[in-house]
Structure formats: C-alpha cells, structure tokens
Here is the input.
Amino acid sequence: MGEHTVWVDCPGCNQRNDSDLEFCWDCGAPLPKASPVVAASPAESTVAGDARADPVPPLDAPAYSLYDQDAVAVATLFGGTLAGAILMALNYRRLGNKSAAVAAIALGIAVTGLLLVIGFNLPSRALTAVPAVLLVIAVRRIAKALQGIAVAHHVSCGGRLASRWPAFGVGVTVLALLALGVYAFVYVRGAAGPNVDRLGENRTAATPPGPSRVNAKDGLRYVWIEPGTFTMGCSPGDDDCLAREKPAHPVTITKGFWIGQTEVTQAAYARVMDSHPSLLSGEMRPVDNIDWSHAKAYCQAVGMRLPTEAEWEYAARGGNPAALYGPLDSISWHAGNSGRETHTVAQKQPNGYGLYDMLGNVWEWVADWYDDDYYKSAGPPRDPQGPESGEERGIRGGAAYYPPWGSRASYRLGQKPDVANEAAGVRCAGE
Here is the structure.
C-alpha cells in the first residue's frame, strides 16, 4: 500500500495544498515542507474551514451556455440584415414603388439565408470580418440597384430621399454587424475558448456520437461507451504527471458500459434520495458533499453503479490520448476560472464521447480502492478493478476548488470513503 496523499496548509491563507507543490495555488506563498497534514481529500476543508471574506452566494439567475450566446449572435447577424432590407422596402413602399419594395425584402431574405450558411460553417472568428465585408458589399449593391429602379421609374419624391433611405438602411445594418463583431469576439470566443471554432458546434456535440438513453429514475441521460483499449496513466507529453500516475500502461475494457453524460445534478439526486446535501445549492449544479457510500447508494438506486477507475479514465479521455481533450478553460471548471464554486453542468465543451465535465467542477467517486503505487504493480491489463483492499477510495477528474493541473485525464487521488466535502460528487455507470 502506498502512502496516503499528503497535504500542507499554506501559512499565508491556510489553504490546503498538495505537498508536491512549492507555492500555494491560491495565494502564491511558499509552502513549508515540515509538519505535513495527512488527509484523504484534495479539498478536505469544508466551506466553514475555507471561509472567505466574500462568500459566494447561490446563483439566482439561470446560467446561460454557449448555445444561448450563439443564438444571440446569430439573431443579431440576421436581424441586422433583415433590418436593412425592411428599411429599404419601407422606403420604396413609401415612394410608391411596390416592385422595388418586394425586391428589397426578397433580396434581404436571400442574403440572410446566405449568411445563415456562412455563419454555421465558418470559424466564429470570421464573424468579425467575413460576414461584415460580405454584407456591406451585398447591401450596398442592393441599395444601388433599388435606387436605380426608383430613378428609372421617375419617383416624384426626388433622388435625395431615394438615396438617403437606402443609405440609412445600410448604416443601420453595418452598425448591427459591428455590434455583433464585438459581441462575437468578446463573449462567444471568450466563453468558448479557442477550441470551439464554429457557431453551433456544441449543438451537434450535445448529441452523443454513440447511443444514449434517459434513465427514468433520475431523468439523466446516459451514453453508451464501446469497449476498447487505451493507455491508462500519464499522457504523452504531460509534464505535470506525478509518481502515482506512472507508469502509463495499456488497459483493455472488454465490455461496453453506460455512463452519465453529466455529473449527477442536485435535482436528480433529490429526486431519487428525497433531498441533497450540497453546500452550494442549484438544481443543475452537480451534487456535492457526498461520501463514497452515498454515491454508491445513489447509483444503485437508479439501477447503475460506480464506474471503475479504468472505466472512468477510458470514458474521460473520449478517445483522445492527450492529458486534455480540449483547451483547459473550454472543458473544465477549476480554481483558476470557477470563482471557487461549482457551476451548472454541461456548460463546457464535451469530450469525444459527448460527456461533459469529465474534468473539473466536482471530483467523481469511482468504485476502486485507491493505492498510490497501484500502477507500479502492473495490475491486470483487462478490466482492472483496482487493489483488493485499502483505506481510501479513488476520486477522479479535478474540481472547481482545485488547481488547474488537477484537471487532467490521468490525475488520480484517494479519499477516505466516509469523508464528504464540497468537492466530492458522482457520475454513475452501468451495463
């Protein structure tokens, strides 16, 4: 049996840190190496033990995902286009030229349709340039063509009015696009990160690539994971790996299994167990503050089970051998971007299997006993079940309260099975 995970308290802010660190991940103060605190949890301190002068209140407003931001961006783009067309149509209707008004609406709809195709197929960064240029060119040409029609019909209201109204429509449209460009650059790309390159990409990713089903008992969606072989442990090129993640070794999962598309939410937990113990409430936040036995009991109550550590890592990687399945801030809530609180599930980018929050938000209990040195013992290469006994159970995935380097597919920890804290949650699996 390897040693338990060792933690030390920061002398500057009293935050508990992994003893492998030289500086506190919260305040940056040097960490002492003497008198380590032995604990079984990466965030054993509860909310009371981790008291802050500015405690984070529960969120009253709903959390909006990238999908909502996409919808706003697309609506702004198309709305600006149609606004210009409608303004021109009203102009020519006012001038008595019905055919020009109909042509303005028709061409506006055509341009909108073209931008619809472009908007969902070009990288989102193109929103700040390509559609703007295209729209300016298109609307200017439309305006000139319609103005020519008006002049050709000898519109009695005069060329000035006929020219100013189309120009006004172009101006409003361009301003709308500029506003969209700022929005797309600051919010859409800022929230999604550089790995989400297409508007609507996460809409398709929200549908798992494999079979999925909704569990009638907890209302959560579960995704089918096909059997396969992968390399478990330290990922290629990962310089943050610790000894307990080594050596990397091949593992074969011989049987497919179901696993939760998201962490168990507080709403689902309360639906099955009548209440939830979470310290920071929110129906769609992951349930936290549960120990191993309660995590196991919940999964059994919905006809599932806890995943093995090997199944968990196989699912977490999503077919990607790297330490991360996307840019860190695009896929994980960790101490560097979470505000030290959990967040509504499925707000980040899913992995290749369509699973959300496999890294970050809350730690996830697994079925295995935990041993720092288990990988060194060259366990069975097929369907490993972990050590035969131990004092700690495995937890995986990192958490919103934990340093960013904990959000890696191979990172592993052990925790006393009777310890429940703000960082411990669950994701169920089953046959």
